[in-house]
Amino acid sequence: MATAEPDINPNIQNSEEEKNAASGQAIVSPEDYIKHPLQNRWALWFFKNDKSKTWQANLRLVSKFDTVEDFWALYNHIQLSSNLMSGCDYSLFKDGIEPMWEDERNKKGGRWLITLSKQQRRADLDSFWLETLLCLVGEAFDDHSDDVCGAVVNIRTKGDKIAIWTTDYENKDAIIHIGQVYKARLGLPPQVILGYQSHVDTATKSGSTTKNKFVV
Ligand code: MGP
């Protein structure tokens, strides 16, 4: 009578592995050669402040990636933010969104802004920026990750800045969730207050500060 028992007699039926070993072929599992896909394709941009050019002309696309491996290859290849000259920026945005207020997905949007003291360039800048990148590529904001457009680090003598840009300053639930998760991921204590500002307000501000639409 036929049974459902597998034939486990090694003398009768060699496994694929044994057959390959006998024929000298290497065993390669798909894990070894298939890169790990990210949910989104991302584009890294670099801004270098050349005062003879317009703001937009100073912005350059560096590279795009959509796998974990290609993210690390790019990250390990480029300078740390703390080594950039003052006036430079890195921006990481979803493919198809330009890292500027004018883009369709940014023009009604805003940003959670981290302002760093001069001392924090040495202490926190690189780790905060890496954590920001990991929040983006790892889609850390649950159902609200779709609201994320990208992130920017500004290297400035007066104090560096890091921000996560979201698509709509009226999407309160998404903005608050993103702000709370981001603050926790950076390990910021409760007494540090993060502010969210619309790009419209930033672009039209008259003084040195822009009013916060939300805080966490
Ligand atoms: P910035 O580089 O974001 O900050 O904007 P910075 O250098 O710290 O200056 P501050 O004003 O915040 O103290 C500097 C200037 O770059 C802005 O005033 C704009 O002229 C220009 N700029 C910045 N962004 C993000 C944009 C943008 O998205 N579009 C355009 N057209 N200009 C921008």
Q: Can you walk through the features of this model?
A:
The protein has an eight-stranded antiparallel sheet with strand order 2-1-3-5-6-4-7-8. The chain is globular and about 75 Å long. A hairpin with a 6-residue loop joins β5 and β6. With 216 residues, it is an alpha+beta fold. The chain is built from six helices and eight strands. 7-methyl-guanosine-5'-triphosphate binds next to loops.
Annotation, overall tally of beta strands:
8
Q: Reading side by side through the largest sheet, how are the strands ordered?
A: 2-1-3-5-6-4-7-8
Largest sheet: 8 strands, antiparallel
Ligands bound, unique: 7-methyl-guanosine-5'-triphosphate
Provide the helix percentage.
Answer: 25-40%
> What is the 3D shape?
globular
Distance between the termini: 70 Å
Mean pLDDT: 91
% residues in beta strands: 15-25%
String of helices and strands: HHEEHEEHEEHEHE
- Secondary-structure-derived class: alpha+beta
Number of helices: 6
The value of Rg in angstroms is 24 Å
Indicate the low-confidence ranges by residue numbers. Answer: 1-12
